[in-house]
Structures are given as structure tokens and as C-alpha cells.
Amino acid sequence: MNKKVILACAICSSRNYTTSKNVSTQPTRLEVKKYCKTCGKHTLHRETK
Questions:
Q1: Range list of β-strands (E), the chain
Q2: Which pTM value belongs to this model?
Q3: What sections of the protein cross the membrane (predicted)?
Q4: Which of 6, 26, 32, 35 is 20 to 30 A from residue 16's alpha carbon, by CA?
């Protein structure tokens, strides 16, 4: 079952991206390096609650 998740920047905590993930195959929180408009560089984005 796919679930919609929100990705937030680890440095400035701005919520920049939304994506979906399969909860049954990946129960841990998603962490991806993405571009943050607020910081102006590529940073780690983590899944929020």
C-alpha cells in the first residue's frame, strides 16, 4: 500500500517535497538528498510525520 509522505530539509526544516512510498516494503523513514530552495544547495531531506 502506497502512502503519501512529506520531505523536510534537515537543516532549515522547510517542507519542500511530497512523494509516495510503499509502507509494507520500506517501514523506515525515507532520507534523500534533494535541492532546498531556502538553503540554496543540496541537503538531506527526511520524511516527516
A1: 2-9, 15-22, 31-36, 41-47
A2: 0.86
A3: none
A4: 26
